[in-house]
Specification:
The complex is a heterodimer. Chain A is mainly α. Helices cover 74% and strands 0% of the residues of chain A. Classes of the chains: A mainly alpha, B alpha/beta. Chain A: This is ABC transporter permease.
Chain lengths: 260, 321
């Protein structure tokens, strides 16, 4: 029980991860639609539609500017929603957690498995989007393959934040609050569709200090543009550090919810 | 996984050969919530290879006790050891050797019957091949082989229950914990499950069960306790409890004023429950004769006393929820 429950995590968490992976593969056709369709829709509507009105952003064509943001958004959505609505369904409606806790696995194993799976789903989506974006000519290979390993810590970050909300939500409907009040504003204001640099300076600090997606977009854009500055070091440390914090918080909130 | 489910189970209670060892022992076991004491200092011991029952009205503390035994709900007081290990310290080791049949069906709806078993095996760290072989065996054992590849939602209530029992056996448990194993099933399905549980017992699998079906407890349990308000009221074999608390026979009739005055005249004690008059007795013929002859009472039933009579006598007839 020591060290905030971290010592209760075992290899068994991989069996939980694998259960979710197997369920994902069983319905792969429907699961593989979003990463292929979403970038196409966004690129057509925003990249080429809105983009037609914009010459370029700091010398970069608009579709190229938003491409790394689209990958970041997809990682955020898939990891966050997997560990909120989907985890909640498994926990509350399907009683899957109750069934697993009757085996040698601990609650910490279950939560860790859920977070790892949420991150994996985000990473799979990032990986599937890369060929689509490449075909549109908005990212370069092989440098953009680096988006895949970067999706892992980003996925753990959004999955852990999701698990925290799942652990405290009184009902599945209440998960709409973080979805609309936290995820949607981040989707719009994290340097996704316009550069953070046009915001007032105080808001720029706010974005890089407090918004997970702003840091992920900044990192991913540095990769696709192949322009590496000290800022990305900050982004990486921020993502890993905050992911670790929310992971531990999520673990303990879930213990509080489930151990009665 | 070991082929035989029987292993020495305790490192604390090594008694002389021939005597049974305690699989579960509880002393002053307690579960307090801020506004309620669900289990109030109970003590009991479950011995190897027996079927031990927990009976009681809703809210008596049965399920809470089960949850403490299988290490998912921490006790708040007292001592509880399973296989000689402390539930608070050795949860993983204890759970490796348990099979759990929960009250609520929590089969995994994303998978088929067969996959439910193999995926469950993975939680125990059973190698894939072994789990698959075991899963086929268990489907056959619970007569579900035909439903091997069917999704959970397409199974009937009885099939789901059988599959849950099969799932609980995937790790060859030495102790099976059954919370209402036949809840909501038709007589055919119940009889099949009873047969399987007796078969498992014959193979040496210790079982602890809760049930609301007193005929089930009477048929299956070697020993049982009746609980109410978090406490154990009585403990013993079904026969002993019936003998001690309900006599051997029960006479039932309608509580007409004639019957009542007739029984009072003959100095026979009786109870009235709504539209039912009951007499507990060891000499049913004499009393039935009195009722039918002296009082000209026409509808008199004589039946064997059952555990249900004991249960209602001890826990009352007031509705609990």
């Amino acid at each position: 029980m020591g060290y905030f429950g971290l010592t209760e995590i075992s290899r068994g968490s991989l069996a939980v991860w694998r259960r979710n992976f197997d369920a994902f593969i069983r319905t792969y056709k429907v699961n593989f639609i979003p990463p292929f369709v979403e970038p196409v829709l966004y690129l057509l509507a925003l990249g080429y539609g809105v983009g037609a009105l914009i010459e370029d952003v700091n010398g970069i064509p608009y579709p190229v500017f938003i491409a790394p943001a689209l990958v970041s958004i997809s990682v955020m959505y898939s990891a966050f929603f997997e560990c909120t609505y989907s985890s909640y369904v498994r926990m509350y409606y399907q009683k899957t957690f109750d069934a697993i806790i009757a085996t040698p696995l601990s609650i910490e194993d279950i939560v860790t498995g859920e977070i790892l799976w949420g991150a994996t789903r985000g990473t799979i989506y990032a990986g599937l989007m890369i060929p689509v974006l490449f075909l549109f000519g908005v990212i370069d290979l092989p440098i953009s393959l680096l988006l895949i390993p970067c999706a892992i810590p980003a996925g753990i970050l959004f999955a852990s934040i999701g698990i925290c909300f799942t652990a405290i939500t009184p009902s599945i409907d209440s998960l709409n609050y973080p979805a609309f009040l936290f995820i949607t504003p981040m989707f719009l204001f994290s340097g996704t569709f316009f550069p953070i640099s046009i915001l007032p300076e105080s808001l720029q600090y706010f974005a890089f200090g407090l918004l997970p997606l702003a840091n992920v977009v900044s990192l991913n854009r540095a990769i696709t543009a192949a322009e590496f500055s000290p800022l990305i070091l900050y982004n990486i440390i921020w993502i890993i550090g905050v992911a670790a914090i929310f992971f531990v918080i999520g673990l303990n909130l879930m213990r509080r919810r489930l151990i009665i | 996984m070991p082929g035989s489910p029987i292993h020495p189970v305790s490192n604390q209670t090594n008694r002389e050969q021939g005597s049974y060892m305690e699989v579960i022992s509880a002393h002053g076991l307690e579960k307090r919530f801020p506004d309620l004491t669900a289990v109030d200092q109970i003590s009991f011991a479950v011995e190897e290879k027996e079927i031990f029952g927990f009976l009681g009205p809703n809210g008596a503390g049965k399920t809470t006790t089960m949850k403490m035994i299988h290490c998912v709900s921490p006790k708040t007081g007292g001592i509880l050891s399973v296989f000689g290990m402390d539930v608070n310290k050795d949860a993983r080791k204890i759970k490796e050797r348990l099979g759990i049949v929960p009250q609520e069906n929590n089969l995994d709806p994303d998978f088929s019957a067969f996959q439910n078993l193999t995926i469950y095996g993975r939680y125990f760290g059973i190698p894939r091949r072994d789990a698959e072989t075991k899963a086929e065996e268990l489907l056959a054992f619970m007569q579900l082989s035909e439903k091997r590849d069917v999704l959970i939602e397409k199974l009937s209530g009885g099939m789901k229950r059988r599959l849950i029992i099969a799932r609980a056996l995937i790790n060859d448990p030495q102790l099976l914990i059954l919370d209402e194993p036949t809840i909501g099933l038709d007589p055919q399905a119940r009889h099949l499950i009873w047969e399987k549980l007796r078969h498992l017992k014959a193979e040496g699998c210790t079982q602890v069960m809760t049930t609301h079906y007193l005929d089930e407890a009477e048929r299956l349990c070697d020993r049982l306790v009746i609980m109410d308000h978090g406490k154990i009221l009585v403990e013993g074999s079904p026969e002993k409890l019936v003998r001690e608390y309900a006599g051997s026979e029960i006479i039932e009739t309608t509580p007409t004023p004639e019957a009542i005055s007739c029984l009072e005249a003959a100095d026979i004690s009786y109870d009235i429950f709504g539209d039912l008059l009951q007499v507990q007795t060891a000499t049913p013929q004499a009393i039935a004769h009195t009722l039918m002859e002296s009082c000209r009472h026409t509808t008199v039933t004589v039946r064997r006393a059952t555990l249900e009579d004991v249960f209602l006598k001890l826990t009352g007839r007031t509705l609990r929820e």
